[in-house]
Specification:
Distance between the termini: 53 Å
Mean pLDDT: 92
Number of strands: 0
Low-confidence stretches: none
CATH class of the domain at 52-189: Mainly Alpha
Largest sheet: none
CATH architecture of the domain at 52-189: Orthogonal Bundle
Order of helices and strands: HHHHHHHHH
Number of helices: 9
Shape: elongated
Radius of gyration: 19 Å
CATH superfamily of the domain at 52-189: Tetracycline Repressor, domain 2
């Protein structure tokens, strides 16, 4: 098996596993499901990811890398703190628009059944989000772009929890209207609502 084929198969496994976790949860995803979707034997999955814990670790690592690359692009493309926060909310909205939930949000709902390493990685994902949001909010308050009713870290944790929760309560309604309304309210509370006509 060539290294190219190996990488491609591993990526396909991760793609399907990510979709299953984002739609069913980690306990609703099995090697049998993935093998059936790929048309391969379960033994082939174990070659790439010997255990489910290995697979979950790889999923979190890849998801976090891609997620924070999006935040880097937001930082690179926007200097306005309010626009950066709107961009952040749009990352979540984009996941929901694909009929999925935040991978780490889904894993957090199954937290007690995760390996200790996966629990640490999920917490790290949320900590890094909180750090990024805190920095953006602090910059915006300092520059007079955002309201400073709460400490930046408290406001960051509220926004993060609000967006994760908005995804969850919007899920049964098949669409993004509810999420968009909740996200807009959360952003408005920080003074980050879009300007009229924008």
């Amino acid at each position: 098996m060539s290294s190219t084929t190996t990488a491609t198969t591993a990526d396909r496994i991760l793609d399907i596993a990510e979709e299953l976790v984002q739609t069913r949860g980690v306990n609703g995803m099995s090697y049998a499901d993935i093998a059936a979707r790929l048309g391969i034997r379960k033994a082939s999955l174990h070659y790439h990811f010997p255990s489910k814990a290995d697979l979950v670790h790889a999923l979190i690592e890849r998801y976090a890398r891609r997620f924070f690359a999006q935040l880097d692009r937001i930082d690179d493309g926007e200097t306005d703190a309010a626009a950066r926060l709107r961009g952040y909310a749009e990352v979540y909205g984009g996941v929901l628009a694909r009929g999925r939930m935040c991978l780490c949000g889904m894993l957090a709902s199954d937290y007690a059944t995760l390996s200790p390493d996966a629990q640490t990685e999920v917490a790290r994902f949320f900590d890094k989000n909180t750090e990024w949001l805190s920095r953006v909010i602090a910059d915006g308050v300092r520059d007079g772009q955002l309201t400073g009713a709460a400490e930046p870290r408290d406001a960051a944790e509220t926004l993060l929890a609000g967006l994760e929760g908005a995804m969850l309560v919007s899920r049964p309604y098949q669409g993004s209207q509810r999420f968009d309304a909740i996200a807009a309210s959360l952003l408005a509370a920080l003074g980050a609502a879009p300007r009229a006509g924008a």
